[in-house]
UniProtKB/TrEMBL annotation:
Domain DUF3616: 54-135, 161-262
A Pfam entry, by short name: DUF3616
Protein name: DUF3616 domain-containing protein
Key words of the record: Signal
Keyword Signal in record: yes
Species in which this protein is naturally found: Luteolibacter soli
Secretion signal, residue range per the UniProt entry: 1-28
Length: 341
């Protein structure tokens, strides 16, 4: 990894854990050669968030201040983290500027990241078509810069800026053909966002290209600096046919990737889907940010929801603790997970 990658903000968790599954021999191992992914016993709660069945992104500016997004809303929700009680409480929502004036306004927020360089959150829409009707909605093609007070870590309501990735995507050969195509048919769709080393890293749910998932790398200055669109860096990561990235989270030596189906389920308007089966298998992978392969860390337990968002709680020499938030479950029903290096 690049030497200038910044570590994330971390939260302490207790050491007790329950073994979930064994890991392949590729990334980290202890003296005995064992590797494992564990479910931690803490029962975290996201409390008071609107549209709590559809929480889709989260990032933290400090140990106590975070920002949460929902894919069914046009506003963001700051949160206060209480690590001692494993609780994140919602504060008053903040509306984001929109490109349209229609009756139903939806950004389809799919990723939230925090940049310590810029003292700002970044919030991205899916940049895809509507999943049910396959219609183009301008607000989905949005990315926002949300300023943060560098002292308190709290969101500033003034100074929020909006732009779109679409002009950059249209100049990127690897994804151009999939733009404005239905997600059921491998159409372009963003689902993950993180920040590391001065760059935004964008995980694509689709397209999956011959078993490879795509991660886009782009400087925030390119987006919000007023310059002309230029090509962005494209990373291809082998994850298997029909798989896509649901989230990406930066850690000290790379990234944790959350994967699920690349294509969405069929709808009345789009009755045929390229999905290989039900979207019930969600796995965590480690990726160093440059290779074309990633290490499969293990499968998350099935709980009726869809793995959707990751928050790094702690990142130390021998392990990473993550909070996994699930779409379709009240309050995201967070699950705390430990990855042993």
């Amino acid at each position: 990894m690049k030497a200038n990658r910044s570590a994330r903000s971390y939260l302490p968790l207790a050491l007790a854990a329950v073994v979930l599954t064994a890991l392949p021999a590729a990334w980290a191992r202890d003296d005995a050669g064992a590797q494992r992914l564990e479910i931690l016993p803490q029962e975290w709660q996201l409390a008071g968030f609107e549209n709590s069945l559809d929480l889709s992104g989260i990032a933290a500016a400090t140990k106590t201040q975070c920002l949460v997004g929902s894919d069914e809303m046009f506003y963001i929700q700051p949160g206060v983290i209480d690590a001692a009680n494993q609780r994140i409480d919602s504060k008053r929502p903040i509306a984001l500027p929109l490109a349209s004036t229609g009756k139903k306004q939806e950004i389809d927020i799919e990723g939230v990241a925090y940049s310590s360089d810029d003292h700002a959150y970044y919030v991205v829409g899916s940049h895809g078509l509507g999943k049910k009707k396959g219609d183009f909605q301008p607000d989905r093609h949005s990315i926002y810069q949300v300023p943060v007070d560098p002292v308190t870590g709290q969101v500033k309501k003034e100074g929020i800026r909006r732009t779109s990735l679409l002009p950059w995507l249209e100049k990127t050969p690897e994804v151009k053909a999939s733009l404005k195509q239905p997600l059921q048919q491998n159409g372009f769709n963003i689902e993950g966002l993180t920040w590391s080393g001065g760059k935004l890293w964008i995980g694509l749910r689709a397209p999956n290209q011959d078993g490879k998932g795509l991660v886009l790398e782009l400087s925030p200055g390119q987006l919000f600096g007023g310059g002309k669109p230029s090509a962005m860096t494209i990373h291809e990561v082998s994850i298997g046919k029909g798989r896509g990235f649901r989230e990406i989270a930066a850690v000290r030596d790379g990234f944790i990737l959350l994967t699920g189906n690349a294509s969405s389920e069929a709808s009345k308007k789009i009755p045929i889907s390229a999905a290989p089966g039900p979207d019930t298998r969600f796995e965590l992978l480690y990726w160093n940010g440059s290779d074309t392969t990633a290490t499969n860390l293990g499968r998350l337990p099935q709980n009726g929801g869809k793995g959707e968002a990751l928050l790094v709680l702690e990142d130390v020499a021998d392990h990473i603790d993550l909070l996994v938030i699930f779409d379709g479950l009240p309050g995201g029903e967070p699950v705390a997970v430990r990855i042993h290096r």
